[in-house]
Amino acid sequence: MSLYQINYNFHGYSTPTKKHSKVKAIITEVAGYADVAKQIIELAVNGAAQNRSYRRLTDFTDTIGNRVSGSHNLEMAIKYMYNALKQDGLDVYLEPVKIPHWIRGNESAEMVLPRAKRLAILGLSSSVATPPEGIEAEVLVVQSFEELKKRASEAQGKIVVFNQPFVSYGETVAYRLNGASEAAKLGAVATLIRSITPFSINSPHTGMQSYQNGVKQIPTACITLEDAELMQRMAQRGQKIVVRLTMDAKSLPAADSFNTVAEIKGWQHPEQVVLLSGHLDSWDVGQGAMDDGGGAMISWEALSLIRDLGLRPRRTLRTVLWTAEEQGGVGAQQYYDLHKVNISNFDLVMESDTGTFAPVALQFTGSGAARKVMEEVVKLLAPINTTKLEKHGEGTDISPWMQAGVPGASLHVADSRYFWFHHSEGDTMTVQNPRDMDLCSALWAVVAFVVGDLQDMLPR
Amino acid sequence: MSLYQINYNFHGYSTPTKKHSKVKAIITEVAGYADVAKQIIELAVNGAAQNRSYRRLTDFTDTIGNRVSGSHNLEMAIKYMYNALKQDGLDVYLEPVKIPHWIRGNESAEMVLPRAKRLAILGLSSSVATPPEGIEAEVLVVQSFEELKKRASEAQGKIVVFNQPFVSYGETVAYRLNGASEAAKLGAVATLIRSITPFSINSPHTGMQSYQNGVKQIPTACITLEDAELMQRMAQRGQKIVVRLTMDAKSLPAADSFNTVAEIKGWQHPEQVVLLSGHLDSWDVGQGAMDDGGGAMISWEALSLIRDLGLRPRRTLRTVLWTAEEQGGVGAQQYYDLHKVNISNFDLVMESDTGTFAPVALQFTGSGAARKVMEEVVKLLAPINTTKLEKHGEGTDISPWMQAGVPGASLHVADSRYFWFHHSEGDTMTVQNPRDMDLCSALWAVVAFVVGDLQDMLPR
Ligand SMILES: [Zn+2]
Ligand SMILES: [Zn+2]
C-alpha cells in the first residue's frame, strides 16, 4: 500500500468553534490528537515497531562502521540509508554537498623525558602533519588560555599541553577548537589538548579544530585526561618533559557527498515542512552509534511510525540526514543556503544530536505564541511521561533556520554519560538501549505529526 | 630520633582487673585506645600527614610507571621503595623471590570479515605468541563454557571469542583464566576473551591466564566489551567473521625479585607480628596506582603515622610489599613457605588490594572470640565513621596464612568503579583521591597498632 493513496483526514472534529478564543481553540485542537498520539506511542513502545529503531541502528552501524567526512564509509552509509528509506516506502532524494576530506593517517606520541611512556592520542580534524620523523620538543603545560598568556615567553619552540579542567562541553571545547592557533601565535611547535570529557579510561577524544587566518598551522591532537594530569604533576615538580609527536594527517580536496532526505508529503500543504533531523557522518573512531546514528534513526523511525499507522498530515514531514555535521554543519549550511528562499514554509525544525538515551523533555525555541502551542503538544506525551517543554531547542544543524526565526526543537535525554563516549572509540552500540530509542522515536513522531497536522503553522 | 630508643608504654591503665569477665576485660582494654586512635586519625586526616599517602603514591607511580613481574620497572620500584622506607626511619629488608617473566611485545588484532576493523586487545600473561605472520581464522562466538561445549564440533580451527556477560569478577574471571585451554581442547587456534569488566570505553583489560597441563597452548588475549558484543551480533546475523591476531609475546626464565619488608619492632614481643600488606607489582598498563599502589602506600603510611606519634606497640608491625601478586601471589606464597615455621607468632595478617577509595568497613576472618575483639577495635574508628566489621577478610596474598588459621583482615572500600579501571590503561592516579587515602591509612594504622599492642594475641 502506497502512502500517497491515503487521504484520510481523521480529525475534522478538531476544528475550533468561533466562540473559543484563539488559545482555547488551539488547546482543543491539540487535545484532539490524544488518541493518535497514544497509537503512535503504543506502536513504538509496545507494538510491532518495538526495538525497530535500535535494530536499524545496529544493522547500519555494524555494517558500515564509522563514517567520517570524505570517507568511503560515509559514501556507503548514504547509499545504505538511501536504499533503506526507499525500501521503507518513503519519498527519498539526495542533495549534493561538497564536504571536507581530512585523513588521520598514522599518528603516535610518546613521552621521552622524564621517562618513556606511550601517550594515547587522537589527532584533530584539519590538523597538519608533523615532519615524517616527528616533532620532539620540550613541553609547556598550562591549565588555561590565561595561564598561556602569562607564560607567553616560555612557549617558543615548545609543545604546549593544555590541561584545562572540564567545565562543560560548550565552554571547554574552546581549547580543542582554538588551542593550536593560540599556542602557535607564541611560537609553539605543536599542541596536545586534554580530551573534552569529564571521565576517562585513558580514552582520547577527537573532534574539530580551527586554524586562525594568518597564524602558522601547527600539528594538534587530543591526549587523555590521565596523561594531561600526569604531565601537569611532572611540571609542578619542576621535571623537564619532552614529548615526540608524529602525525601524517593530510587534507585532500573537498569530496562529493549528499544530504539524505526522506518525506511523507503533506496532503493539504505539501510545500509546508516540519523537518526532523540527525547527522549521518561521525568521527573515524567507534561506530558513531550515539553521535549521531541514534538521532538519524529516530528521525527515520518517526516517519515509519506515522506511515505504519496510515497517517498523513496536512504538511510535509521531512527527515534530513545531514552530511559533514562534525566538520561544522557543512551539509546543513548548504541545505539552508539552498532552501532559505522557502523559509516561510518551514513550520518547525527538529534535531536530535545529543544522544538517544531516555527522553526527559522537548527543548523548544520560538515565540511566546508558538510556545503556547508546543506546551499543549507535549501534553500528548503523558503516556511516556515526557510532558516537559524546556527552553532552548538547539542544534548545530538547525541553527541557521532558528537564527532566521524558524521555531526549533531538540530532544533532551538523560545524557549524563554522553561526553564520556563522544568522539571516542567508546561511541558504539554498547551505549544504546532499545527501549530508550523507542521512547525517543515515539516522542519525535508525535511532535512532528501533530505540529505538521495542525490547521495553522506555528506562529513566528 | 630513632624509633627504637622510645620505650613508652602509654597504656598501663588498660590492664584488666581480675573481677572482669574476659569479654568485659577486652572491651575495657580496647576502649582505652580511644585517645590514641583519635590522635592517629587526626594526624592522618587533618594533621601534618594529610595527603601524604596520596603524595607518596603520586611520586612513586609518576616516577616508575607500571611494574609488571620481571620488568626493569619492578626492579626500580623495589629499589625506590627500599630507599623511601629507609629514609622514613623504618627497619627495612628485602627477601629474594624468583618471579615469572613474560613480555607482551607487539600485538594487534583486526577483523577482516565481514568488514575491516581494528580490535583493541591486551594479550594475557603467559600467553604464547602467534606465528610472526599472525593467525587468520574464522571466529566462533560463544557466551559461556556451556555454549562452547554444545558447539564443540564448530571450534576446530577457529578463533573462539568468549562474550560472557560480566556477573562478578570472582565468577567471570574464569573465562580469562581457563578460556584458552578449554577452547584448545576442541581444536581452536586462539581465543579472544571479553574483558572482565562491567563497563568500558572500548578499553581492553589484561590479566593472568593458566594453560592446563597436557593441553595445546594457544595464543590468548582480551578484547573489549564493545567488540565482543559486535561480533556476537554479527554471528547472530549469520555473518562470517574472520579475525587476524598477531602477538609476539614470550616467556623468559624466572627473574630475580624481592618482597620488600619494613617494620616497627614490638617492644615486648618483637617476634610476634601484625602484618600489613599490598603488592608492589602491577600490570604493564596504566600506572598501577589503584592496583595496588594504593594498598602498598597505606601499608607504609600506617607505620609512618604510628612512628610520627612516637608510638611503639608490644608486637612488631610489619609491612610487606609483595612482588608478583598478579602472577598468582608468587611473592606471598614464597613468604609463607619461608615464615610458616613461625605461624604461631602471626597475630593478624592484613591486605589492601581492592582499591583505596573511601573506606566502608573492615573485613575480618577469624574465630568468634577474635571477632569479639575486632568488633571492639573498629569502634575506635567512630571519628571516621567506619565502625563496621564485615565477614570475609580476604586477599590473594594473605590467603595462605588464613587457610592455616591466622586471623585475616582486609579493607572494604567504596569501589563501585574498581573493575572499570582494573588491569587497564585507566589504572592511573586520576582515579585516586587524597582524602580517601588518608581515611584508609588512618583505619589501617589504628587497627594494626591496637591489635599489635593488646596484651594478648587474637584468639585463634
Ligand atoms: Zn553529533
Ligand atoms: Zn592487585
UniProtKB/TrEMBL annotation, chains A, B:
Keyword Transcription on entry: no
Gene3D superfamilies: 3.50.30.30, Zn peptidases
UniProt keyword terms in alphabetical order: Carboxypeptidase, Endoplasmic reticulum, Glycoprotein, Golgi apparatus, Hydrolase, Lysosome, Metal-binding, Metalloprotease, Protease, Secreted, Signal, Zinc, Zymogen
Pfam families the UniProt entry points to: Peptidase_M28
Signal peptide (UniProt feature, chain positions): none
GO MF terms held by the record: carboxypeptidase activity; metal ion binding; metallodipeptidase activity
Name of the protein this chain belongs to: Carboxypeptidase Q
Coiled coil regions in record: none
Domain of life of the native organism: Eukaryota
Main location: endoplasmic reticulum
Family of this protein: Belongs to the peptidase M28 family.
Subcellular location: Endoplasmic reticulum; Golgi apparatus; Lysosome; Secreted
GO biological-process terms attached to the record: peptide catabolic process; proteolysis
PANTHER family referenced in this protein's UniProt entry, alphabetically: CARBOXYPEPTIDASE Q (PTHR12053:SF3), PROTEASE FAMILY M28 PLASMA GLUTAMATE CARBOXYPEPTIDASE-RELATED (PTHR12053)
Keyword Isomerase attached: no
Species of origin: Gouania willdenowi (Blunt-snouted clingfish)
